[in-house]
Amino acid sequence: MLNDFLYLMNAELLITIIIFILLFLKLSNEEWKNEGLLNFINILLVINLAAGFFYIPKGNLFGDMFHTSELVTFEKNLLNLGTLIISLQSYDWLKGHKHVPEFYMLLLSTLLGMFFMISSNNLLMFYLGLELSTIPLAALSNFDLDKRRSSEAAFKMIISSAFSSGLLLFGISMLYGATGTLNFMGLKAHLTGNSFQVFSFILLLAGFAFKISAVPFHLWTADVYEGSPVAVTSYLSVISKGAILFVMVSVFYNVFTPLASSWYNMIFLISVATMIIGNLFALRQQNMKRFLAFSSIAQIGFILVGLSAQSIAGSSSVIFFILIYIFSNLGAFGVISLVSAITGKEDMDDYRGFYKTNPVLSWVLAISLFSLAGVPPMAGFFGKFFLLFAGAGKGNYSLIVIAALNMVVSLYYYLKVIKFMFMDANEHPIQKIKAHWQPKMAMAICVGGILITGIASGAYNYIHSLLK
Amino acid sequence: MNLSLLILLPLLSAVAIIPLKGAKPARVISLISSSLQLILAFALLYFYWNERSAGNTAAMLFESNYTWYAPLHINYHVGVDGISVAMILLTAFVVLAGILVSWNVEKLNREFFFLLLFLSMGAYGFFISLDLFTLFFFLEVAVIPKFLLIGIWGSGKKEYSAMKLALMLMAGSALVFVGLIGLYLNTNAGNGQHTFDLLQIAQMNIPLSAQKFFFPFAFVGFGIFGALFPFHTWVPDGHSSAPTAASMFLAGISMKLGGYGCLRVATFLMPEAAHQYSWIIIVLASIAILYGAFATMMQTDLKYINAYSSVSHCGFVLLGIGILTKTAITGAVMQMVSHGLMTALFFAGIGMIYDRTHTRQLSQLGGLLKIMPFISTVFVIAGLCSLGLPGFSGFVAEVTVFMGGWQNVDNFYRIATIVACASIVVTAVYILRAVGKVIMGPLTMTGGGSPLVPKGIDAKWNERWAAILLITGIVAIGVAPFWLNDLVTPAAETILNKLSSIVK
Asked: For A23-50, how does the pLDDT look when each residue is reduced to its tens digit (9 = 90+)?
């Protein structure tokens, strides 16, 4: 039993150990220099990431509450990778921050929550993980301690997530009433597709949609993204959404199969609305963080197209896209966080003439944006192609036509940023930025990932083989 | 011969440019790379003839096929037939000429040559792909470099034009995307498996309802690339704002991606739908031909003249495809090659004139023959080829299309042919007017307000070589059209065999 416990929960235990190390560091009387501390934490995160590849556990624990498999470990590794990239990127911001250990303790607690969520085999466990991953995030949003917008963001975040958790919890309790169990396999056996179950499923879906900020539950996103520190924004938009989507894939595909025909229609509607509204709002944004917030809403719409496929191609394309999305979105956020940390500029207009002063950073941002827009040879092209491709497998071509046209609209606003950087002149461009090696490394990982993941088919084939 | 070399060569040379500093190494590497590309294209032609004359009648030669995404049945599958070989030759010619012409780009040399080479990689990849996914991949690869080339190095309202071009072409590829996915899902390669493989799909019979639904997506999508009326509006803006080399690439290569796609994907794979919709294609193509010609008459900017005349000339390509006879399709391919070379030459000539006079307005130019005889001669040759003078490639190609059109006994096709023929008169008007105004007459001493530079400003070595290269191509086709004809006809036959085996 103890052995099982140690082996199967190795990812969670490692994170917990790191949190405790940080706690003791904080409690000791020693004054730690931020640079050294950050490097130390980054090394811990690298070890944490590497350990995930080292041993791949399979099995269930705690009376089927917790389960893990090759796929689950892969998903956890992806989240670890994303967290490491964000940590490297926020080096410049955290260097001058007074509360580095607290930042990481909160960050890793949310990561731990996500791990439990992904590993859950029971709605109760899932809810526990979800809350563990949400509440510290609200505190993180507040981490620009001297900015009012930041605390406003945190407040919005906590209120809206409390509301969505309420919906979710209501849905869960109604499901329990309808089926008498919270275990995933038990649920599947008891689901018949009657209207009461569909109604409770809608509540559950609303909770999910809140967390991934799908339309019409997206209203909190832009303000929270704008107010939070860039590191937290990128964490919110990539890691926390990614984790929820992983859960959605497994829950929708494995548990709610008896309701498949009704959830297809719901996902279809949400997906179309999310793509269109996310795109329309992104067109008009002037702040880079808000812009990426809305563009990430639109991306969620595309992901839902893949999710609607109800086939192995669908689930693997969603997971594959999240892998690519981690690289692309974090690549873009990396540049923005660097610029914001050093110059404090976050407006799109400030990026005019960016190429003249910072050619390398411009290319990094351009490559990331091209990948988000789905332009080959970047990985985003493959990701989006496979999502739509899987969605088309269902035979509903209207969804694919809408999605394909939305890709054109989204290209417009991505190209607008490219135009600002490469083509426009500016009297006061952002000065030449000297980055430390940590953010450079993070950008190199992102760019490398963007260029390789698509052309080399290994990642997709691996994901597909896990889902078979 | 390994076709992947055609992709690897531009790709590797583009990557090799990145770490270099300064203008010189970048352009030397690009020149070497593009010369090698031309040699490679000729080697391909040579090997292709050898294989064919040795009696190899396979539809595609030099095939290689690797699995790319196994779960989705996506392969990297390449191979060539006569049409692809012709298009590859065209690409190699235009790339070399384009790089020669842009020898003295003002700013950001490295990036400029990187994008040019990258663009050429997309074009080669597109022409050799036999897998629909690979084909689509390369089609899109070629879009963004154009956006950057126009937006950064262009002139006039370049940002607007670049954005318009990128969005319209992306909308085109979105339609192509829907068409391709629809095609894929209606294939049946046994046990419910689907395939993207072009040759395998060609062997199958796609259900007629699916063809009728997806043919418009694929054809219009590719048609946007090939300036199909009414989706041609990106052409004039894009071409006129682009720097010289990019205009040459745009008109010479990337508009041909559209024509080639219409032929190879839409018509070849969905022949019944192509037959049913052919009247719409013909009507649209005829409108494009006439409308393009008349619109050109009204233009006063040299680049706009050539851009609108490109709309008109590319109409012949689509007309040839729409008419669906062997001769017409051969003519369409010949027109693609001919127009590619001719329009590249035209844009090169305009670029050279603009570099020296700093104006492209007809009203401000005149008598250039007196001070720049070489450039003026180039300009005249391009003009004469454009209006279809015998001896140049334009004549051969257009006549082939007309003959193909007449072969179809249906009155509708013949009327379309007559309408298209009539446009030649209009073409003659605007070409002769432009050439006469710019080349002949008294020398205008002002160019956009600045005094014209003194004598000794004729073409430099790089420009001479670029022009000679393209003129060689044009004359070679014009004087000895049979080699191109022999190259293309068997491939056109393959496309039509599929059609005639089903229809009638």
From this structure: 988 888 777 788 888 888 888 889 888 8
Could you give the count of Cα atoms lying within 13 Å of A188 in the half-sphere of its Cβ?
13
Residue A464, chain B, CB below 8 Å: the answer is yes
User: What are the helix (H) ranges across B186-270?
Assistant: 198-203, 208-225, 234-241, 244-249, 255-261, 268-269
Residues of chain A numbered 312-351 and touching chain B (CB < 8 Å): 312-313, 316
How high is the pLDDT of residue B448? 47
Sorted by sequence, the CB contacts under 8 Å of residue A286 that are 6+ apart come out as A347, A348, A349
Tell the residue number behind the tokens 């193909």, with chain if given: B404
- Which residues make Cβ contacts (< 8 Å) with residue A30, sequence separation at least 6? none
Residue where the block lists tokens 């095939």: B63
What is the DSSP-derived secondary structure letter of residue B228?
Answer: -
Q: Does residue B10 have a cis bond before it (omega within 30 degrees)?
A: no
Rounded to a whole number, what is the distance in Å from the CA of B323 to chain A's nearest CA?
29
The DSSP element (H or E) to which B498 belongs, if any, is helix B481-502
Query: Which among A337, A314, A144, A313 has a CA at the least distance from the CA of A237?
Result: A337
Domain housing B128: 5-502
Shortest distance, CA A71 to any CA of chain B (angstroms):
17
Backbone phi, then psi, for A393, in 5-degree steps?
-55, -25
* Residues paired with residue B446 on neighbouring β-strands, in sequence order: B451
Cα(B472)–Cα(B341) distance, integer angstroms: 10
Note the ipTM here: 0.91
Distance CA B8, CA B11 (A): 5
| DSSP one-letter string for A173-224 | HHHHHHHS--BHHHHHHH----HHHHHHHHHHHHHHHHHTT-TTS-HHHHHH
Residue of A370, A407, A415 with shortest CB distance to B174: A407
The residue type found at B258 is G
Every domain of chain A and the residues it spans: 2-467
Q: CB neighbours of B19 closer than 8 A, spacing ≥ 6?
A: none
Do the Cβ atoms of A381 and B137 come within 8 Å?
A: yes
Type of residue numbered A298: A
pLDDT at B87: 92
Asked whether the CA dihedral B153, B154, B155, B159 is positive or negative, the reply is: negative
Taking the Cβ of residue B158 and every Cβ of chain A, the question of whether any pair is shorter than 8 Å is answered with yes
Which residue do the tokens 């995160």 mark?
A: A45
pLDDT digits (tens, 9 = 90+) for B265-283: 888 888 888 888 988 999 9
Query: Minimal Cα–Cα distance from A377 to chain B, Å?
Result: 6
- The reply to whether residue A375 touches residue B140, judged by beta carbons under 8 angstroms, is yes
CA atoms within 13 A on the CB side of B120: 38
Domain total in chain B: 1
